[in-house]
C-alpha cells in the first residue's frame, strides 16, 4: 500500500471487523480524563475522517452511542464546517441515509517539513488530500559557515522561508476557494485550521522548542557540539511571522507526523485499540512513534522512542548525535556503504545492484545492517508489547513482483528474522510487521499537516 493514497478509507464493515479483533485480543483502552461530551465529539469526528462515508446510524453503531446523540454531534461539527452531509445512498432496508464526510471544501491544514536541504510545504484538506504544494531549496548561504555542515542552518532563514511560503500558499488557497466555492468565505470562518511543522530530532511538543536537530545542527547548551547553533523556539517564531495562534501550531518530530498520517488516512488503524508503532526509516536515520489509545506517546519532553539513538554496538560507527554505535549509525546508508569500502560503491543504488547480482560483500553489508535494525525493533517490541509495526519512509524500496522492502530484500529478510529470534516470549506476529512505500516527497509535509488533524481528534486542539 502506498502512503500517498487518500482512499478508499475503511468501510463500515471493515471498521466493525477491526473492533471485533481488538476485543478478541482482550485489549481495553485507558479511560481518558476528559468530559464525555468532548470525548464523544472527538470520537464522531475521527470516525468520519477514518471511515468511508458512514451515515449517522453507522457511526452510532460503531461507537455504541444513541442515534440522537450522534445526530446532535454531527450537527455541531457541521456548524463548525468540519463535516457535511453528502448525497444519499440506498441501504439494504431501502432507506437512503446521507453519508457524513469531512468538509474538504474550505477547512485546510498547512504542513511544513524542514530538512538540511529544503523546506517542503503542503496545504491539505480534511480529507487528507494535498491540494497545494511548494518546495524551497536551501543553498549554502542558509548555513552560518557558508557551506553545508559548516556551522548550522540559520534559524532566521528557516523562519523567513516558512513565512514567505505560508503567505504565498494562503493567497493561493483563498483564490482557490473563491473560485470553486464562491460563497464559502462569506461566514468569516478562517480556512486555516492550523499549521503543522515536522523535522528530525528532539522537539518539546508542549512548548514548540526544537531542542536537538542533528540535520540542522541546533542544540541546547547542555549537549551542543562545536559548530552547532542554539535551540530554537520554533512555534513562537512561526506564530510571530504567520499570525496563526500558537494553540493551532504543532511542532513535532517527523516520525510522529508520518505516524499521524498513517493512523488517520493510511491504514485504518484507528479502530484497533491495541498499541502500535510506526517506524520511519530514511537513508541516514531511524525514528519511531508509538500509539497508546490512539494518542502518540511523546514522553516528558517529547523525545520518547528515539529508536535510532539506542546503542546497539558500544564500539560501533560514529552517529550524527555524537555517540557511537547508535542503531541508525549501524543500520542505514553509511553503514551499508562503509562495509563496501573496498568495492568502491558510492550510492545505495549501486549497492543494491551488486547485492541483487549476488555480490557476497554487498549481500553481507545489507544483511548485517538489517540484523541491527531487527535488534532495535525487538527491543521496541519487548519494551512496549506493541501489536503492530509499520515501517515507512524514503528507505522503503519497491521490488518488482514482490511487496516493498526496507533497503533491499537481504536487509528486509535479516531484519524480520532477527526481530522474531530476539523477541521475548511470543514476540510479534510476523503478519503484523508492515512495510509501506512512500511515492513522493510530499509525505513528510503531509504528515506535518496531519499532526494538526490528529491533535483535533485527540483533544489537544480545539475542534
UniProtKB/TrEMBL annotation:
Region spans: Disordered: 1-26
A Pfam family the protein falls into: ROK
InterPro entries in the record: ATPase_NBD, ROK, WH-like_DNA-bd_sf, WH_DNA-bd_sf
Domain of life: Bacteria
Coiled coil stretches, renumbered: none
Similarity annotation: Belongs to the ROK (NagC/XylR) family.
PANTHER family: GLUCOKINASE, ROK (REPRESSOR, ORF, KINASE) FAMILY
The name this protein goes by in its record: ROK family protein
Species annotation: Nocardia elegans
